Amino acid sequence: MRFFDKCTRFVQEVDNNPSAVVEVDKFKQGPEMRRVQEKIADRLRVPYCLITHDMTEAAFYACAYEFAINAVNSPWCQLFDEDDAKVMEYASDLREFWKRGYGHDINSKSSCILFHDLFSRLDKAANEIKSGQQVTEAVTVQVGHADTILPLLTLLGFFKDSEALTSTNYATQTKRSFRTSHMLPYAANLVLVLYDCGGSDLRLQPLLNEKPVTFSGLTGQQASMPLYQDVKEHCRELLHGCDFETECQLFKPPAEV
């Protein structure tokens, strides 16, 4: 399930490439983050120069982890107010956007192998249903991490905003869809349920963290549970392409004329 580790292009161009996340570094040095650090220094009554971004991030995550795991409002949380937390959240979203999300094409294309495995299992079940056979694989469970789910969500087109997240548009991204605290909480899960509605009416419902989500571009009353064939048509280019070995080559061969 760690397909990205085997994707040479992703490893070289994004994972091990500091310039791939330059927007994150710019935001860390920007006015919003600097203001958070200054407010922490004021609360602690220490010089501004003593509070670094790394210290600020460590304090924020100490607060978040203790609250999430132990339901404790720890002293670390007293260093931040709600506005500070929103800035820290954006910094995290910005990193995931450029490291695993829409920031670079190879981020999502690294999950091609998982994408095809997913649809091959759905196709197998769909064909068995259509032929009146017993479905041989009623449930498939695959376990990974957030780093596994996010590239696949991106490849499927979920939570894509009209504008990319950058170091300079924090103020205009307050209502962004790409919000990892909602997409990837603890025990995050993506479920695709294939329904047999009779008469060759097969429908596919995607659920993220037990809540229905809709495929971008599929609208109407059945958007949350579209026809399986409509989903395949929507993903046609990926189903006929998106080859893991080809996408993950560091140097792609020139296109044929």
Textual characterization of the structure:
With 257 residues, the chain is mainly alpha-helical. It has a single domain, classed as Phosphoglycerate mutase-like (Rossmann fold). It contains twelve helices and three strands. The protein has helices spanning 8-15, 22-28, 31-44, 53-70, 82-99, 105-109, 112-130, 146-155, 180-183, 228-234, 236-239, 244-247, and strands at 190-196, 202-208, 211-212. The model has no long low-confidence stretch (mean pLDDT 93).
How far is the N terminus from the C terminus? Answer: 36 Å
Helix content: 40-55%
Tell me the count of domains: 1
Biggest sheet, in brief?
A: 3 strands, antiparallel
What radius of gyration results from the CA coordinates?
A: 21 Å
Write the layout of secondary structure elements.
Layout: H1 8-15, H2 22-28, H3 31-44, H4 53-70, H5 82-99, H6 105-109, H7 112-130, H8 146-155, H9 180-183, E1 190-196, E2 202-208, E3 211-212, H10 228-234, H11 236-239, H12 244-247
Antiparallel strand pairs: 1-2, 2-3
Pfam families: His_Phos_2 (PF00328)
Keywords: Hydrolase
GO molecular function: acid phosphatase activity; inositol phosphate phosphatase activity
Highlighted features:
three-stranded antiparallel β-sheet; 257 residues; Rossmann fold; 3 strands; mainly alpha; single chain; elongated
Structure in a nutshell:
The chain is mainly α and 257 residues long. The protein has twelve helices and three strands; from the N terminus they run αααααααααβββααα. Strands 1-2-3 form a three-stranded antiparallel β-sheet, covered by helices on one side.
